[in-house]
Each structure stands twice: as C-alpha cells, then as structure tokens.
Design brief:
alpha+beta, three-stranded mixed sheet, three-stranded antiparallel sheet, 45% helix
Length: 190
C-alpha cells in the first residue's frame, strides 16, 4: 500500500495537519459496527424465540468487540437451572446452538457470522480451565522434552489453547480430523 505523505504545515492554510489515508481491508469494512449490530439483533431474536419455546427464562446481552459479536444468555435473578441444559456436557449443546444461531444470522442477512455464544458464563469458566491445561502442557513439554498431545476440543477452544501456548513461548499444532482434532504442544525448533 502506498500512502500520501503528511501535508507540510507551510502548505496548510487552516493550521491543521492532514492525516494520511488509513487502509481498511474488505473483511473489516464488511464487518463494520452496523453489520455486527444487525447480526447481534438477529441472533438475539432467534435465541429469544428458542428460550420461549423451551420455556426457559434468560436475559440476552449483546456485545461487539474486536470485529466479532458476542451473545451472552444469563439467568434471570439467579435461576440458571434451565440454562445449564443449553450448555450440555463439555459444552456440546452450546456449540450446536452457536452453529444454529449462526445459520439463523446467515439466513436473515446473507452474511456468514463469527458470533460467539455463551450461556451462564460457561465459555469464561472454560477459558480459565483451558489456560491451566495449556500451562500444564507447556510445563510437561519443557520437563520431558517431548510433544504433549491434548484431548480433542472444539475449534474455539483450540484457538484459546494455541494463543496461551504461544504466549508461554512454545508452539502448538492441531492434528487429526473431525471429532478427533486435537492440539499437540511442542518445544520450538532451535
């Protein structure tokens, strides 16, 4: 990309310095705040209908950050028993609901969504667990000098572990396919 030089103050009669143009890639531009807010509204409407059908009470919060929509479903006044069934064992039901919500957004907007759905704070708690798993794997790899294979996990969880491992100075790769896709943590090549 070429950028224009900043204007020389002697050329600027208003006393203000002109700013150089900022490059914006197409994906960032197409995922602008307006589109992400629309995505959140569609997702919230879909989830509200689902909660009504299942006769489960919950409040839906929408947040847009880092070019992604985050939807949280939290219990009304502390009663989260019904919502826990929407998380399922190891978050399997939550993952399925996230995909269904993304499909609802795609159907309504003709745009693929990268929204993240969380129910009762499961992803936040799981993120803390994944950080510990990454730290333990890094420690074991350093101690034994051998690769450490982790159990299979979702793409979202693998991303969290990859980032944690990188922050701790080691490398990680995803291996396997489908439900068996997992991370292998190893020492960096010297």
């Amino acid at each position: 990309m070429t950028s224009e030089p900043l204007a020389d103050s002697s050329d600027n009669t208003s006393g203000m310095v002109e700013e150089a143009p900022v490059a914006v890639d197409e994906e960032t531009e197409s995922r602008g705040p307006g589109r992400l807010e629309e995505e959140g509204d569609v997702a919230a409407d879909y989830l509200e209908e689902l909660l009504d059908i299942a006769d489960i009470d919950g409040d839906i919060d929408i947040e847009v950050r880092h070019g992604r929509t985050y939807i949280s479903v939290v219990a009304e006044e502390g009663d989260s028993s019904g919502l826990h069934s929407l998380v399922g064992g190891d978050g399997a039901v939550l993952e399925a609901l996230q995909e269904l919500t993304r499909l609802a957004v795609l159907t309504a907007t003709d745009n693929r969504s990268r929204l993240v759905l969380d129910i009762t704070g499961y992803r936040k708690e799981r993120g803390a667990e994944l950080q510990i798993i990454a730290e333990q794997a890094v420690s074991k790899a350093k101690e034994d000098g051998q690769d450490v294979a982790l159990r299979p996990m979702s793409a979202y969880e693998r991303k969290i572990v990859h980032d944690a491992v990188a922050d701790l100075g080691l490398v990680s790769e995803s291996e396997g396919g489908g439900d068996e896709r997992h991370i292998v943590v190893s020492l960096p090549d010297s």
